[in-house]
Amino acid sequence: MRYRIAPDVVWMADDGEVRLYDGHSGEFQTLNSTGAELWLLVSEGNPADAAGIASQMAQRYAAEDTGQAAVVVRDVREFLDTLAGQGLLLTDTADMADMTDVADDLAPSGPAGPSA
Fold first, then answer.
1. Nearest-CA neighbor of 30 among 88, 91, 74?
2. Rg over CA atoms, the chain
3. Which of 33, 51, 67, 73 could form a disulfide with 16 if both were Cys (CB 3.0 to 4.6 A apart)?
4. pLDDT one-digit tens code per residue, 76-87
5. Is the bond preceding residue 47 a cis peptide, omega within 30 degrees?
6. Which of 45, 58, 31 shows the shortest CA–CA distance to 92?
7. Are the CB atoms for 4 and 45 separated by under 8 Å?
């Protein structure tokens, strides 16, 4: 599942925090340094999928401890899901289908295509 910042969210990174304003709800929120780090990873879009972000965070904070790495992965996914539940992040579950469609469009077909 891929994440992206909702279009009605205005945000600013400053002093290790991220300050958010949700234009839809009218609420302000401040993310601590860890939350800010996750938000910035989503904003960069690389990787903006839960597995990629969780993997990066596990490498940074628990590379030597697989048990702790599992906790980091779980916590990252829960945090991203919470932000999505609040409408601050949007999820794109259609990305894989879109990628398949693009691959199908690029694949040769008909007589010029590969033969079996």
1. 88
2. 18
3. 33
4. 999 999 999 999
5. yes
6. 45
7. yes
